[in-house]
């Protein structure tokens, strides 16, 4: 079973170990032509014993997913101001810009590989799911879920990027957010007596 991030002590040796492993993983991902890393390489670069890495992350893909989710959470938090349209637009624009960066698709490819091997990556993406849920709760919407955002924003963004036909932040962010808002309106109207 894969251990989720955030389940251990927040400071001390565990935090230093996690940061060293994440830093080594980010460096190796930047150097990787196919978005893969090996645990032995991460161990050598980070100075952390391979057994410690296997115990915590179980697989190289689990490590990649955890590293990228942690970095995204720090670098590009999902806003939760209460204005759903503005929050989603800010986040979606950043997402579209991030996907165009070299190496960013390594995260998505790692999730695909983990799924192919029967490993759930949900434990590692849970921090992002909580951020999405907080954004929805801040806007007081009850008709949308984080999975709606995955289906209507994340899925098309990553599929297009994988097909080497990336979306344009200047035009496609508005369209993707408009789709979410249209679903919200339709569901709210359907609930009215």
Protein topology:
Layout: H1 12-31, H2 39-46, H3 50-57, H4 60-75, H5 84-99, H6 105-116, H7 122-138, H8 146-162, H9 169-191
Helix pairs in contact: 1-2, 1-4, 4-6, 4-7, 5-8, 5-9, 8-9
Order of helices and strands: HHHHHHHHH
Spans where pLDDT lies below 50 across 5 or more residues: 1-8
Radius of gyration over C-alpha positions, nearest whole angstrom: 18 Å
CATH class of the domain at 61-191: Mainly Alpha
Give the amount of beta strand, in percent.
under 5%
The number of distinct helices, counting runs of at least 4 residues, comes to: 9
Structural class: mainly alpha
Question: How widely separated are the two ends?
Answer: 46 Å
Largest sheet: none
CATH topology of the domain at 61-191: Tetracycline Repressor, domain 2
- CATH structural architecture of the domain at 61-191: Orthogonal Bundle
Total beta strands = 0
């Amino acid at each position: 079973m894969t251990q989720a991030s955030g389940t251990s002590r927040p400071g001390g040796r565990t935090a230093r170990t996690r940061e060293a492993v994440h830093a080594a993983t980010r460096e190796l991902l930047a150097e990787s032509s196919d978005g893969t890393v090996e645990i032995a390489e991460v161990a050598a670069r980070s100075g952390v014993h391979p057994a410690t890495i296997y115990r915590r992350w179980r697989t190289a893909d689990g490590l990649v997913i955890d590293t990228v989710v942690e970095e995204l959470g720090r670098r590009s938090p999902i806003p939760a101001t209460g204005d759903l349209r503005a929050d989603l637009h800010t986040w979606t624009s950043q997402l579209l810009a991030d996907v165009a960066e070299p190496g960013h698709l390594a995260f998505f490819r790692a999730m695909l590989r983990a799924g192919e091997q029967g490993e759930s990556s949900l434990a590692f993406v849970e921090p992002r799911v909580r951020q999405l849920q907080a954004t929805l709760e801040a806007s007081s919407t009850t008709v949308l879920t984080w999975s709606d955002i995955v289906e209507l924003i994340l899925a098309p963004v990553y599929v297009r990027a994988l097909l080497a036909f990336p979306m344009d932040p200047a035009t496609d962010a508005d369209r993707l957010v408009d789709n979410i808002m249209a679903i919200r309106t339709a569901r709210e109207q359907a609930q009215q007596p």
